[in-house]
Amino acid sequence: MSLFTSAVPRARHAALIAALAGAALAGPSFAQQPAESAAGTAAPAAIPAAQKQGGLEYRCGGIGIDESTAMRAAMKDHPLSLLFAAPGGAYQADVQVAVQPEGGNAGQPMRFTANGPICLVNLPAGKYAVEATAAGKTQRQSVTVGMGAKSLDFRF
Questions:
Q1: Neighbouring residues of 26: CB distance < 8 A, sequence distance ≥ 6
Q2: How far apart are CA 136 and CA 28, in angstroms?
Q3: Are 47 and 61 in contact (CB under 8 A)?
């Protein structure tokens, strides 16, 4: 049984795919170049601000080469990272996410909409079920956080 029933807005999804396809055509040399500041010096790309939902703190983004590179670099600094993509590898956004604690302290799921294809999630050590819904499909994976950075990959 799915925790979500809403559909992905098609126009926003199509715009995201078009933007990412254009960036992919630029090639790897473009992806490795840092953004330049107004002074002409290289400036690191910022990752999106943290959002809070119950006991969960998360940052979702990764739209555009600079932000995607910054988000991927920050994955090692967060207990859990989520990646949303199509089977062919195209990134996906507007994914409905629920994080459900498992075990004796199982409460209500913490829910949010991933407005980017990469989410960095900070939550206490423990076992969780993560459910992601996009393009009318729902996937569920379990993960135990607390011993190093973990990553879950959802392909729709």
A1: 65
A2: 32
A3: yes
Q: Are 94 and 2 in contact (CB under 8 A)?
A: no
Cβ-contact 58, 112 below 8 angstroms: yes
Q: What is the pLDDT of residues 30-81, one digit of tens each?
A: 333 444 444 454 455 789 999 998 778 999 999 999 999 999 999 999 999 9
Alpha helices, DSSP H, located in the chain: 10-25, 28-31, 65-74
SS3 content of the chain, % helix, strand, coil (to 5): 20, 40, 40
- Confirm if 155 and 96 have CB atoms less than 8 A apart: no
Cα–Cα distance, 10 to 143 (Å, whole number): 30
Query: Cα 106 to chain center, whole Å?
Result: 23
Structure tokens at 139: 């996937």
The amino acid sitting at 59 is: R
